[in-house]
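Holo prediction — flavin-adenine dinucleotide.
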Amino acid sequence: MIRNERDTISNSLWTATANPAPDCPPLSGDTDCDIAIIGGGFTGLSAALHLAELGRRVVVLEAETPGWAASGRNGGQVNPGLKEDPDTIEQRFGKDVGGKMVALSGGAGQFVFDLIQRLDISCAARQTGWIQPVHSAKSEATVRTRVEQWRRRGAPLRMLTREETADLLGCDAYSAAMIDQRGGNLHPLNYALGLADAALRAGASIHGQSRVTGFEMRGDHHLLRTEGGTVRAAKVLVCTNGYTDGLISPMRQTVVPIRSIQVATDILPHEIAQQILPQGHSASDSRRLLLYFRKDAAGRFIMGGRGDYSDKGIRRQMQALRDASVRLYPVLRDVPWKYAWGGFVAMTQDHYPHLDLVAPNMMASLGYNGRGVAMATVLGKVMADWASGTPEAALDYPVTRPRPIPFYFMRRPAVMATVAWSRFRDSLER
Ligand SMILES: Cc1cc2nc3c(=O)[nH]c(=O)nc-3n(C[C@H](O)[C@H](O)[C@H](O)COP(=O)(O)OP(=O)(O)OC[C@H]3O[C@@H](n4cnc5c(N)ncnc54)[C@H](O)[C@@H]3O)c2cc1C
């Protein structure tokens, strides 16, 4: 069970099958460092690791425990790329900046798998490829364009025929799919714990149960306050994504936290498990309200999708995910479902992650729009580059200033309306 979380979303498969967590005691007393990091998910841990490896004195302050939030709860799907396709990114940001964003996001999956191998992290990582099955003729055309644009840049993507799609998924619900061989899947909480362990070994300090409750500028330094003490740092990295609180005023209004939920079976009997995603791929389909599914290393089936804000709505949607699973894979009809959990992803208005300078010598990276396994890891590294002296213009991702979303107070009704509208449009495109 995820500690300090509401019951409806706390029964996590990843928590139940986690490796032992490294010791991260709460901050006690006053300390001094080069770079302080707020938040211990993939972003903060990747930044801490890369900075500690450069010999910087780093302190991570995490409100709960490393990997407690989205990083320890997600689908573990390593999906390269951004929401928009490479040509669009280069048109929108220009050939130079856009080209760097395409290269960074396209290489993000490989970066994760290389890091896991280099650090020998035990997290069941498999670079089997990521499958995006299409749900309509319109989405097939979109996905074909995606494949064509990435292939032009030398990336290993291709379209799968109906038969190949059925073979790799183990079901015939989709007429075609794209496979991106740069992607794959992993055990997300064990990946986060492995990053934390590696950062500690490299010399970083990580403090759990150490929520930052206030900060102030003292000369050219920041002073961060927690219940147990203070941290004085020349630079601060804010890595709080969908769990961003009101600590730094404009930040909260730059992302909309959306609940994503998952349900999972217990270990499936071998004869059932081998019929579903028989080669260990993970898939997330092309719907606006997408379904994402995979098996874990032991052969449990996991299905994820959009959640709700209320417990009643969450329970209803968890049942809808179990029903959708049985529609895809009728062999799951009588299988018991053992786990159900969820967390917040952070959406941005423009669907791009933001690397924001939120105050002097204080940078935030957030808004992965549901693609944080790969992107949070690489943007953690980009923040480490910035904190260790790389000029803004030389970074692999553009630095912006926080842009609060207009009418932020309307976000929940706006999300509900968008969900309803997206469901309706998905239903028209069968
Ligand atoms: C159910 C679910 C499924 C998902 N599936 C996928 C997937 O399959 N593939 C994919 O690529 N992405 C997926 N995502 C998204 C991905 O998990 C996130 O984008 C990524 O984990 C973000 O990492 P992060 O480190 O930025 O934030 P988080 O992991 O959310 O960490 C933020 C941390 O900040 C801490 N914090 C907040 N405020 C403070 C404070 N004041 N002081 C100290 N600490 C603070 C929080 O406690 C938290 O631990 C999914 C997300 C969810 C919830």
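READOUT: Residues 132 and 285 are 5 Å apart (CA to CA).
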